[in-house]
Amino acid sequence: MKTLLIHAEKFWFKVREKAIAEAEEKDILKEYEGNNALVVFVTVELNDYSGGKEFIESVANNIVDVLKKIRASEIVIYPYAHLSKNLAPPHEAIAVLEMLEEALKHRDVKVVRAPFGWYKSFNIKCYGHPLSELSREFTPITTRRYTIGKEYYVLTPNGEVYKADEFRTNDEELKILIDKEVFKKELPGGEAKIIELCRKFGFEWEPMSDAGHMRYGPHATVIVESVMEYSWKVAKSLGIPIFRVKGTNMFNLKFKPVKEHADLFGDRLYEVETDSGRLVLRYAACHQQFAMIKDWIISYKDLPFGAFELADSYRYEQSGEVMLCFRLRKFYMPDLHIFTRDLEEAKKMSMLVQAKILEEIEKLGRRYVAIYNVTKDFFENHRDFLIELIKREGRPALIEIVPSGIYYWVLNVEYNIIDFLRRPREIATFQIDIGNAKRFGIKYVDEYGNEKYPIIIHTAIIGGIERYIYTVFDKALQDEARGKIPSLPTWLAPIQARVIPVSKQFYDYANEVLNALLSEGIRADMDDRDLSLGKKIREAGIEWIPYVIVVGAREKETKTVNVRIRHKGIQKSMKIDELIKIIKEEIKGYPQVDSALPIYLSRRPTLHYLKEVEMK
What we know:
By secondary structure, this protein is α+β, with helices and mostly antiparallel strands. It folds into three domains: about 1-140, D-tyrosyl-tRNA(Tyr) deacylase (D-tyrosyl-trna(Tyr) Deacylase, Chain: A, 3-Layer(bba) Sandwich); about 145-475, BirA Bifunctional Protein, domain 2, CATH 3.30.930; about 495-605, Rossmann fold, CATH 3.40.50.800.
């Protein structure tokens, strides 16, 4: 809060017209004239409201102290937005001014308050003594309520509850999670090979942007777009109506629901200032979907339904903690919100969502270990539901119990992999949200004609796009450590098949094979460079191409292809139709996006990120 205090011999103001739509209107003082007044020009800033009563009392004490020193007979609180650019939203500014007025009145002082949000004319005559013009700045000391009162337990599939510090297990992954989350142990790290692996495929930091912002080369672009399209396919597979939407990535903090929702994320918010005020870059798709769906006319017959957006999202991570492909300031979130009639329906839908989350991680050959963040009342009243969820996961879960009423959710499940360096990494999630429908004004009409607020499930079934990719790369590292050939799933490989003619005289047949692959939607290219066969095969291996096809005299004569299959570590001869059938079977059920590279290697510049990564 910033203030300018003037000891006025005379002061007069008169309300003229509204300056903002949110201006005060009820019982406002439209004109006033006073003598020997301490006029307090007040700019209410962001976070002043969060300072609460203690903060306002300290401001009031300071003002009264000045009043006594100059022996003024009254105080005029005059809203004045010109002392700071860091303005609070109107509803908070009005609340702070009202609290300040009330606090001053309790000190037996005559107080007058000019209305907020109006253009006003005023005259002021300053006494001109040493204390007649003063400025003061006040900053609230805020604490995060949601860090207080956490309790940690372990809940087993059999329904047994243990204090986390007393739980003993042979499940090494669960033990790692407990050590990190409960005991805050610094886990053994090591060389982050996965960073080099990300770079190898064109995932890089953008040095001309802010910390934590990535760029995606052609190979990375194919991987990202494939996962994006797959996330939409997975959302649709839930079997309920899903609406895909798109929207903006920044929202104005002057709007109450935006500010209240944003406050929950504290200093992890990314903020920008424009001529329309202070805006927050969205943390996920919540703001946009809720702002849109509040305008929909929804019947109980429409529920449940989902809204999905591939949202470019922003979190202001500490610059020293950002990590390529995992901890980012700007990332893509396949955000799905499912709107349900009530808590019981939300619980049923949560089981459907959970099943899909577990199914998708199993497809990658991985298994999750879970953290159940749950409010105290939900844990006490719905423990059977939690046990059922954990039973379906087949291993105990860490339970973090928080006081009720702090968050908008009653249940927030975080699904972690334990990565190559034995660290927990959150990937997928779902939440049961009981607060945001009311906050944003989202309603439906029940069978009796009554308006009600839906319960909302938030979920990213496969996790953030980059984190899903992190999981895939991490699996390759773990496979290599077990003696397997590291590879990407064929549907994610930037180039799925490469045709390599032994010499120029076989270019025609090589093109015939290439076109057969391309006509089936397979991402294929041809190495037509004037290089040795060995060098071409080695470079195909650097790109982890699943199928490397060599054609020469025998292949041309027999209309076959000689194929090196990376993930199997074998080489065999087959008909082109047989190869196409094998590849199409592998990518069945997955999206096939276009290649981001020219099909002939002779027409490509050297891509700086393509290099061999020493895996061992």
